[in-house]
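The pair is quoted verbatim below.
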Amino acid sequence: MKRLLAAPRTLALTMGTVVGLSIPAIAAGAAAGAAAPQAVTPLAAARLAAPAPTNVRAVDTTTSSVTVAWTPPAGATRYRVLIADNAKMTDRRRVATRNTRHTLTGLSAGANRWVRVRVIEMSGEPAAGTRSPILKVTAASGGTATAPLPGSGETLFGANYTSTADVDETVYGGRAEAARVFFQQLDGKSFSKNGPVKEALADGIDTFVVSWRETDLAAIRTFLAGIPDGLTVYTSFNHEPENDAGAAGTASYDAWATEFRRQWKLQSPLMRAEGFIPTTILMQYTLAPSSGRDIADWTPPQGTVDVFAFDSYLTGDVDPAKMVDRMTEAARAAGVPRTGIAETGSPADDPDRVARTRALRNEVIAAGGFDFALYWNAVDRYDHRMDKKVSDAWFG
């Protein structure tokens, strides 16, 4: 995807004023005969007076992770999260993001971390005077995750990045906050050399939902170790496993469901060891009585996943409110109070697709507890590709 960037503009300022803030020293200097100030770029002006992120808080806590969110100051688009093991913030690590939240992963139960958030400029350097207060966060000490704050509105809205040639990803308009990517073969370079990953990184995305079907633990371990630092990654073994199992009650169904649960016991520790977020992705159709399936057959063993997500589409007469309710109830019944939408979409021939897309977004935000919601911007059985109106409805 190519982007056109406007040429930098300068802002002509009146003497003694920088973006509305009076600077006595400048006025005094001018009165003493000093040269009048030159035009100041908006970027330089922002360094003088950019406010700090506010309301830095923990919005979700598990035994292995803490998600921190903040309220951005006007005009801010990029942030640097500073994370340390001590209150003096020494030996801290830095993570850059365009999102207004970040998940600290790979924590031990009860572990403490200290976090501070800064605004950063287009150059990648921190703007002056933009540090938030330091926040101490603590991973949960119990055996289960705590629910996110209801209605926190911290869901990341994104899209599936695919290699389909006829998919126009420019409709995202730089607004996608997370990307879904599939992997066929796993090795240490699979992530960095993947085309859709490169597209997403170029769009400033630092949160990924990745899926694979690999069962070779050595290959999985190598793949996970090759994912660059500084990214939030939700990892999923074999999304929609029910679709490969045959009819419920058959020997093939039972055998594959058993193997699926066994693989989660084997693969989850590898995901956690790299600080990633184990995420199972099932079909919402499995929740319908007409499927003949039992969701328990496809629920990974207790404690192996942190997010219980679904592929769920706005087809037929599906009600977005009921869709969200079913996903939320299923996740909590599984003992995993965090959920997400890994795939959704409305067919291009649906006359109400814009309104239904907007309604689903609003229901997700109102429900709370969703980590991500990703649009299936592709053509398969139906044409789910976004147009400008759908994109505006989904990304807000």
